[in-house]
Design goal:
Elements: E1 3-8, H1 16-29, E2 34-38, H2 44-57, H3 67-72, E3 80-84, E4 87-90, H4 99-102, H5 109-120, E5 129-133, H6 141-148, E6 152-158, H7 161-179, E7 188-196, H8 202-215, E8 225-226, H9 229-237, H10 244-270
Parallel strand pairs: 1-5, 1-6, 2-4, 2-5, 6-7, 7-8
Antiparallel strand pairs: 3-4
Helix pairs in contact: 1-2, 1-10, 2-9, 5-6
Pfam families: AAA_31 (PF13614)
Domain AAA: 3-176
InterPro entries: AAA_dom (IPR025669), DNA_Partitioning_ATPase (IPR050678), P-loop_NTPase (IPR027417)
């Protein structure tokens, strides 16, 4: 069965898209059939993976039509791009910002939230994992739709106050709106992934301590993402795997991805 995971935080600039993309890439390199769906009109995950494809096979990829046009045609497959044999991208473009207005034809907001899930149903037999990247906006139809159709949410939290506050608000929103109000059928929290800004700096330690107190130690990933220049470089160059620095980053993400999979298995075992 396909497992769908949304990466989230209401605070922008926390590395959510980079982490979603690197974990999707890692899943594919582990042999899992993976789709990353870029539901952010800014298209940052799309840009990063198109450059990654060029690094892999030297080809400049294009998609048949924009995601918004595919939604209008009720056929998302026209916006699919194969990045490598185990990784596909559902590519976004700026016109996807029109999606909420397009959905105003449905008067009931909860029904709007459910709509995108139906469009993803044809993909569910094709992939082991679907990773959803969303814009960092509070209470948007993009995020609501992604969370509604997800099995799990992974929250990316940088170790500073704004990101901690964004993670806390995001968790409250999951419960109060997506689960209690919209009645998401499967959604659960797989965990909070800390992104350490300066490693041992006092603000990092304080934020982690506050996160443990607020969320519980068991909900924070044991493997954490340390600040690395190479991670900042990937959105510009695409993912590369040639140098020692590349391999260090990819090894770290393999540890994080394996922990994510273990967490999912534990949740499903205890259900």
């Amino acid at each position: 069965m396909t497992t769908t995971i949304t990466f989230g935080n209401f605070k922008g600039g926390v590395g959510k898209t980079t982490n979603a993309t690197l974990i999707a890439y890692t899943l594919s390199r582990m042999g899992h059939r993976t789709l990353i769906a870029d539901l952010d009109p800014q298209g940052n995950a799309t840009n990063m993976l198109l450059k990654t494809k060029a690094n892999i096979d030297g080809k400049i990829a294009t998609f048949d039509q924009s995601l918004m046009r595919s939604v209008e045609d009720n056929n998302l497959s026209k916006s699919l791009i194969s990045i490598d044999p185990h990784l596909d991208l559902l590519a976004s473009a700026p016109d996807f910002a029109m999606y909420p207005r397009f959905m105003e034809k449905i008067h009931d907001y909860t029904e709007r939230v459910k709509y995108l899930q139906q469009m993803f149903d044809p993909f569910r037999n094709n992939y082991d994992y679907i990773i959803l990247d969303t814009p960092p906006t509070v209470m948007s139809l993009f995020t609501d739709s992604a969370l509604y159709m997800s099995d799990y949410c992974l929250i990316v939290m940088q170790t500073h106050k704004d990101s901690f506050d964004g993670a806390r608000a995001f968790i409250d929103y999951l419960q109060d709106y997506v689960i209690d109000k919209y009645k998401a059928p499967r959604l659960d929290l797989v965990g909070i992934l800390p992104v350490l800004m300066q490693g041992r700096a006092p603000v990092d330690k304080l934020t982690l301590e506050n996160a443990i107190k607020k969320f519980g130690k068991e909900n924070l990933f044991k493997n954490t993402i340390h600040y690395m220049q190479r991670i900042k470089r990937f959105p510009i160059t695409g993912i590369t795997d040639k140098t020692m620095y590349d391999k260090r980053v990819l090894h770290l993400y393999k540890l994080v991805t394996n922990e994510m999979l273990r967490r999912i298995k534990e949740i499903e075992t205890n259900e």
